[in-house]
Amino acid sequence: MKRIIVIGSPGAGKSTFSRELSRRLGLPLYHLDSLYWKPGWVERSSEEWAAIHEGVLAQPTWVVDGNYGSTLHLRVAAADTVIWLDLPRTLCLYRCLKRVVRHWGRTRPDMGAGCPERLDIDFLKYVWRFKRNGRAKIFTCLLKYGDDKVVYRLSARRRIRKFLDQVSEESGGDARTNAASSD
């Protein structure tokens, strides 16, 4: 595992999971939200986003968290490992609401600078509908570009914890050394 993408519904815990996985494996971490959004919740131009995205994927090792459907196929194609956090939508929605309360008016560490947390009803609707709409896009992308990838679909919190524990065990306590030397 040297080039890992973490995908799933908003609120599934992608950023938290990615931070921990990055730490355990000693790999650089890229949060797509922090790269995509300019201050004030301004979207980057297509050209600007493509250049930033390509720059990340050109790196030899990484953990990248986020969906961004228009470029998901590029990440799947470049990755060696796909980790799909596929948790129940009620849990994801709850976590999104909890995140709003916890970070209200402040910028989260995984978000672009100058993008304070806010309540966005359209976003919450997107989270609620993700199982119906987003999952199909993920399946299609994985079928088309993921044949030679190792794909983990983690659908329960205990499975996520077990996965991270196994990563720690396999790394023998020194993830940086083992991640650099194993292939």
From TrEMBL:
InterPro entries: Cytidylate_Kinase-2, P-loop_NTPase. Gene3D superfamilies: P-loop containing nucleotide triphosphate hydrolases. SUPFAM superfamilies: P-loop containing nucleoside triphosphate hydrolases. It comes from the Bacteria. It holds the Pfam family AAA_18. This is DNA topology modulation protein. It comes from Alicyclobacillus fastidiosus.
